[in-house]
Amino acid sequence: MFANALAIGTQTIMYIVIGVVLVLMIALSIIPQRKRKKQQEEMMNSLAVGTKIMTIGRMVGKIAQVNADNTLVVNVGTEDSPTLIVIDRNAVGLVLEKVAVPAAPATEEPTAPAEEVVEETIVEETVEETTEE
Fold first, then answer.
1. pLDDT band at residue 11 using 50, 70 and 90 as cut-offs
2. Is the CATH number of domain 48-97 3.30.390.50?
């Protein structure tokens, strides 16, 4: 009877160990994948005109234009004789030299007097409408 209870306890421990190992394997494969995906997104968002890149086909060039349809115009020639190619944004494999992107100036929120002017204009329009009648 004691041997039977010992065998059941050993099997339970074995299943727990296998479960813990499976959870660790899954966690250790997902965490680096998320980290790589985040780095890839940051790299894609940092692409700007003048950035030196290497494509997944190992072509090296500088970005000449960033288009709205997720394509890039890349100069793979020299400065004297440019050779421009159009590639998809996802074809960028590596950023070799980053270009400092100028910070966008902070826009100021409208002040209270500007709102008052809008209200006065509306009031004037309603007064004109009533006088026209």
1. confident
2. no
